[in-house]
Design a protein that fits this description.
Layout lengths: L2 H32 L5 H26 L9 H18 L4 H20 L8
Length: 124
């Protein structure tokens, strides 16, 4: 498998993980509200913000699904494209700035992982 294709697969997995994390946070805030640890206003604000973030991640996942790794010369080209698209999405849809930061962190994480991933040797 090419590094470009591997990058895309890992990035999709990271996006799914991020969406699950946001769902867990939503559940946590709901529990805190039900136990009266936070008020209704705080709960609604947090809930709305997390839903926007989750929707933004879902929309970005569609962009990633449409990427053909063969159209890019390198993993770095894909990274640059994804960063540009995430910046564009945040700006165009007035998504929370945190989305760009979260996506960039995921891209950097995968880049570091793949850059340090050395093939295993058959030698004992």
């Amino acid at each position: 498998m090419s590094a470009r294709k591997h990058f895309i697969r890992l990035f999709k997995a990271e996006l799914e993980d991020l969406a699950e994390d946001l769902e867990l946070l939503e559940g946590r805030y709901r529990q805190r509200f039900e136990r009266a640890e936070i008020g209704g206003y705080v709960f609604r604000e947090n809930d709305a913000f997390l839903r926007r973030e989750r929707d933004s991640i879902a929309n970005f996942s569609k962009i990633v699904d449409g990427i053909d790794p063969a159209l890019y010369k390198s993993m770095t080209d894909i990274e640059a494209y994804l960063l540009a698209k995430s910046r564009e999405q945040v700006s165009s849809f007035e998504d929370p700035e945190a989305i760009y930061i979260l996506l960039k962190r995921k891209i950097d994480k995968i880049h570091t992982y793949l850059a340090t991933d050395e093939p295993e040797s058959d030698c004992p």
